[in-house]
Amino acid sequence: MASSLNESQFQCSICLELFTDPVSTPCGHNFCKNCIGEYWDISDQCQCPLCKETFGRRPELRINTSFREVVDHFKKMTVNEGCIAATGEVACDVCSGRKIKALKSCLVCLTSYCETHLEPHQRVVNLKRHKLIDPVENLEDRMCKKHDRLLELFCRSDQTCVCQFCAETDHKHHHTVPLQTELQLKMIQIQRSKAVVQQMIQDRQRKVEEINASVALSRGNAEREIVDSVDVFTALIQSIESSQAELIEVIEEKKKATESRAERLIKELEQEITELQRKSTELEQLSHTEDHLHLIQSFYKQTTLPKTKSWTNVAVSQVNFLGCVRNTVCQVKNSVEDHVRKLSATDHPVVLSAGFAPELKKMQKYAVDVTMDPNTAGPWLILSEDGKQVRKLPRKVKVPDNPERFTKDVCVLAKQGYNYGKHYWEVGLQEKSNWVIGVACETVPRKEFLSPEPLKGLWTLCHRDGKEYVAFTENPHPILPYPRPQKVGVFLDYEEGQVSFFDVEAKSHLFTYTGCKFAGKIFPIFDPCLTAERNEVLPLMITMVQVN
User: What is the pLDDT of residue 333?
Assistant: First the structure.
């Protein structure tokens, strides 16, 4: 047995490997022929590397054939001991006693061979024609049970492997092709499935990156919002210090909620990625198998993609905390409202815009291109060619009565509708004494008079008779802007359910609807109003947003 021999006995002391063409020096030591030759070629004198005995002239060395046979036998025994078939491995069908691990299986002989017993198939001409594959068990499964012939055809009609006799009898009128032809088709389908899986993995990895980026921006926005809130509240009286702490708590909760949702989505994405990577590995292994029958029989099971979620419309919205500061400041509004009225009555300017200027600037980043839809315009209106202006006509004109047109009210909707995200646009008012602007749901009635309130699907700001400004909440909310707004910015945050109005030039907040329950698309709405002032022909204008 090789285990009873000492490997060092068969090692060359120069290369430390098992002897190759061993030779003996006159002093009785053994070396590989090439090793001792190269050693003497670079030495100044001819001596033994082990005992250092010096020879007068370079000995003529010959290969020790007997010792070489012993070394070769030791090598063979070592290799065989290391190749004994383990549990689960395919063993050589020819080996007697301890079975050596099979190197190949022959589909003609229906036998598995180790390296030694495979040698005739590599040497004999007729055996060289046999089909060899990586070792597999149960070679009899590759034989037709009915005709005892090799399964070498594939019936596409019945999706099963058949032999030549089957193709000429039971499957005579079926569409049969050689296994190799069907294999090529299946390999193409596997490659396509691999490409689909890889694309799905890449899409989800990009979605992970997108979510991480969104979380990072939300975290940065949260930190900046906290700093801004401190600046605002330090400018107010001591009585609102407690409100500042509450605001920070709300911001932190929103940030945590966003991060928590992002973590859940990332975990779900990573689970899908892991499952898809596993499927990709399985497909890769399947694409390299030489076991064609196994590939075809297990094709549909192996190429069925795992159930995954559609992530196209999944996103973690950036939390910009717009309105948080404003809502908190509104808590102390009643304590200063009388003073504001007094200042307005005496035509003294009220500077309330400083705290809202940064917020307005943030909203302006979400500016969108809005144009009015002539198909919705009431019969008293005329639109400019570019859809940016709407003017009231002195009398009603004849227009097509299409379903989307307002017929009782002087309204027009924008072409653009929104069912997600944040959007901002600005409306020029000039010196108009009557107007209504804001947003409306897609299902707002078109053939009856509208009540511009949230219960009817409208969230608007109204200016009446050149005097009051009103937001139509449950109890109409009067607004006291000063000076008179010449341009109003409208901000829609669909996910947060908010609609805000700003005096653009004064950089001051006018009003915000919160807790809005949107359903479907939300459209900008414009109403230049029918009034007793028939000579008022000034238009409402959608203006370009300019961020300072």
Answer: 64
